[in-house]
């Protein structure tokens, strides 16, 4: 990314202030996770207000210190094109494997992405948690937490839940759904006269 500068300053009262990205507490600057990506270098320079003696007011500046951030598994997946939502179709009462709700966006990179997903945890992080307790169409978010604790949230993942028996054909039923049609056989009569 482009170079950015964050400056933290301690005033004569000992209060810290910051200009730029991040926060400062007791001289420690914390940069937002989404502003620094893996593989990028963070450089820090410290300037003090002078020496130890009262009459020494010459400012001192340190040599630059650098930290290269490791590229996380989430960074690597994003570099490979990221993750896309996949519709999940379930019956009422079925268990949900949220891992089936995401896939590699770039089909050509799916094997590399699958390798990075090994050991990851998948969970529904929709504000109102989704389940298969009732029929309906539910849009939500799946959080993928990699084994290095980096994460990606996949938006707009659909969960379609169908009742086991219904009198109408539902568009997004699970793949093992059966449509059964009852027809009168030869020699069968319908008695519409009512029963007595």
Shape: elongated
Q: What percent of residues are in strands?
A: 25-35%
* Largest β sheet strand count, sense and barrel closure: 4 strands, mixed
The helix-and-strand class reads mainly beta
State the low-pLDDT regions, or none: none
- Spatial sequence of strands, sheet with the most strands: 10-14-13-12
Report helical residue fraction: under 10%
Number of strands: 14
Number of helices: 2
Q: End-to-end span in angstroms?
A: 84 Å
SSE order, one letter for each helix or strand: EEEEEEEEHEEEHEEE
Query: On the 0-100 scale, what is the average pLDDT?
Result: 83
Task: Give the radius of gyration.
Answer: 30 Å
Provide an overview of this structure.
This protein has 196 residues and is mainly beta. 8% of the residues lie in helices and 32% in strands. The chain contains 2 helices and 14 strands, in the order E-E-E-E-E-E-E-E-H-E-E-E-H-E-E-E. It has helices at residues 73-79, 110-117; strands spanning 7-10, 16-19, 23-25, 28-30, 41-44, 47-48, 60-61, 65-68, 83-85, 88-91, 102-104, 121-124, 136-145, 151-162. The strands form 6 sheets. Strands 10-14-13-12 form a 4-stranded mixed β-sheet, with no helix packed on it. A two-stranded antiparallel sheet has the order 1-2. The chain has a two-stranded antiparallel sheet with strand order 3-4. A hairpin with a 2-residue loop joins strand 3 and strand 4 (28-30). The mean pLDDT is 83.
